[in-house]
Fold these 2 entries.
Entry 1:
Amino acid sequence: MTRLPRIELDFTSPPPVPAAAIRRANELMISGRLFRYGEAAPGELDVAVLEAAFAQLVGRRYCVAFNSCGASLAASLMAVRVLPGDPVLMNAFTLAPVPGAIAHAGGAPVFVGITPDYKIDLDNLRTAAERSGARCLMLSHMRGHITDMGRLMERAAELGLTVIEDCAHTLGAHWKNRPTGTFGAAGCFSTQTFKHVNSGEGGLLVTDDDDIAARAILLSGSYMLHDQHGTTPPPEAIERNRYTTPNLSMRMSALTAAIVHPQLELLDERAAIWNDRYLRLAALLADDPRIRVPERHVDEHYVGSSIQFSVDGLDDSAMLEWLSLAEAHGVHVKWFGRPEPVGFTSRFDHWRFANQQTLQATTAVLRGLCDLRIPLTMSADDCHVVAEIIRCALATTGRP
Ligand SMILES: *Cc1c(COP(=O)(O)O)cnc(C)c1O
């Protein structure tokens, strides 16, 4: 045990806010113009400017900014006309805001199992869709794992499903050179602190559909100031929806947009660091026979801001033992097998506001699933130390 090195690395350290963003945020605070709507032209309003830039970055016609990704996910469901009581399919492996967004829209979450490589199980998708009669799938690219989008969209079409993509971990990621968030009817991105752009809170919905864009604008709480958006659908689309779409006051503030916008040009730089660290860690961990690191598909251009791996075959007490040993040496690994939800990590059977389901294969995958954040401050050398701590902690576990 004493042979284990220790690392002083803050696994929770977020990407810093660049100087240009701080400058702009200060200007806004001095002016007091923090509300997204004003008397200015759209070109002078930070949120509208961000919407236009983000739509262009992802390659979709419209972007509507929200106060969180969870809010934008809920708005997407309402915008595709999910009605109270409607079943909505979702990956069983995701984060709590996803079933929360479905509940927010009044829908009933229906969990779909995952494969051992942490992606949605397409056979289970068919069964769950047919059994529930759901018309909509909220697909999470959870922790950046992107399923074969060609096959997924084909299956969704066969089953008559509208797809909403949860891209909280895939800003900058592609499947076959096509950005995530451009496959479904709408895609939602997060600018929460632990995602690829950090403004504390924030959500960005993208779509090509006039009516979804119009409803998203109205739902976000536009006070009918539609022309102060960065990407506005034709007036007819607003007209068709303005009397039937409530204002839910889930707007992004100017301050958030000012913090987000200058970070967009840093995405490639950040992704290069994350992927370098990811590949180092993946190679070192996969070298250990006790650890399984699923291989990534050649068409999956992920951004490795965190790494997932499986440790199968240990009982709960052995898992807790090696996790606390790693923790004592400075490596904070999250475990999706914990019986109780702890710090970000909850599981489908913890979301008891939804109908409970049994998904044995998925539960077995989650039992061994470990998750490690990759802070941008992790150096290439740190990767070796981190992997060694994980491997030594595992090797020590269960030994007398
Ligand atoms: C963070 C996250 C969200 C929602 O983001 P918020 O901006 O916090 O609402 C949705 N899905 C996944 C998988 C996430 O990790």
Note: The mean pLDDT is 95.
Entry 2:
Amino acid sequence: MATLGWIGQTLGELSSQDLLRTETVLGAESGLIPDGRTLLADGRQYICFSSNNYLGLAGDERVRRAAAEAAMRFGAGTGASRLITGTTALHRRLEEALAEFKGTEDAVVFASGYHAGLGVVSALAGEGDVVILDKLSHACLIDGARVSGARIRVYPHLDIERLQELLCREGSARRRLVVTDSLFSMDGDIAPVKELVRIAARYGAMLLLDEAHATGTLGPQGRGLAAELKESWDGLIQMGTLSKALGSAGGFIAGTKELCLYLRNSARSYIFTTAPPPAAIGAALEALRIIRSEPELIERLRSNVERLASLCPELHVKSHIVPIVVGPAARALELQKAFRERGIWVNAVRPPAVPHNKSRLRISLTAAHTAEDIGALASVIRELIPLGSSG
Ligand SMILES: *Cc1c(COP(=O)(O)O)cnc(C)c1O
């Protein structure tokens, strides 16, 4: 057998388990711009409920123009990492704007949210420390914990009592870091941020809150769930991405000045990668400006969430991310196909993105959807999903 024969064998196994992924190549025709509402594939237009472009800003003309202008003024690429030639005045301006948005002293922009999660966890914890994660934390946080060399403990999803037990039991660790999403990417449910802060602070542990899906969508003015806290606490480290509601690409950590300087000196995924391109930075800055000056965008997202919740109470809608859990991967794929035949673009999410036998359709709503779009989605759900079989 060829040396790489094992790869073909592995792919065959994935395929037979309905776990092989392939990418959809979107059409090059006009109408390709991600407006947060439609999608063009296989020569057909769909209503798209799969994108994290929650406010439609990836396709907003002002955001695209800002990207183009930033590229014209600052170049297509940065030429080196942030610490070498990769920090333009634009990068600093975005970091200052993010810090102001998040109500922190400073912020650090990474090449992606994945880089930010990987870098911050492995910079804050190491040998002799313990990282305690919610079971459904995003992969970049789990990977960060793995490369950190710290001991890893996991508590059942949202189980605050178990978290408290673990903090208690791990009292001898040098440092303790609690890690969780604020809005969970595949379940659409929300961590009890106030409780988490109270418990982490009581045990002298740090708390990393990944607000990837909440930044620009939840909390006062879309500042994320941490912005709902009454008091500030230096142990709270906020993470977000520029790639979802902000419609661009990149990730960030917001916190104290010292934390940010420390990350610039120690987060390997910050130091050893080329700085994000000016176009992405310029786009994110403009998106942030729009979010702050046009609160009606977030209001529209909220009312779409409410609309789906009232049309489909059986879904127990908690946020703009709505899972329809169906179990076997094959069933999720069947449903994906049936939805698409009806003009609704949704994606089957299968292991390892979700636990075994918890395959699902993941529906994401955006501010760009119309009332008719939500109505169309609801009637396809009612046609294809037997009542009481999801959740
Ligand atoms: C998407 C996501 C990330 C990664 O962000 P990117 O900018 O896409 O790399 C990190 N954490 C969570 C919870 C996410 O959903």
Note: The chain has 13 helices and 13 strands.
